[in-house]
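Residues pack. Consider this:
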Amino acid sequence: MAYPVVSFQRELTHLGSTQNLLGYKGSKEPVLLDHYSRERNSPECFPKTFIFHSRDDTIVSVANTEIFVEALQRVGVPHEVHLFPSGRHGYGLPGKHLKGAVRSWPRTNAALVKERGTLAHFGRIE
């Protein structure tokens, strides 16, 4: 999961994500928002999870990652989380535009995938 929007609670969510993912513009259906907030519902159903986020992300609050990690810990889902000091939002696969530790996330994820045997061949990541 990269800079995930997992909560649809007003103080944490990204309005554009709420609209795009739920087709939802207002706060008229709080039950629906609770239902789709992953930190509140069924995190025990998640597989082993790899999450990365940058603390300087101004689009999606890093609190989404922090509360989701707490929920995974509560129900015992194996996970690995990387909170980078910088990287902002939307960096995806690293390129020349990325600086510092955030450039390492694909190698770290590939190593975990190989270690767990999730894919027989993951390919080469620089």
About this structure: The mean pLDDT is 76. The CA atoms of residues 44 and 74 lie 9 Å apart. The chain has one domain: 15-116.
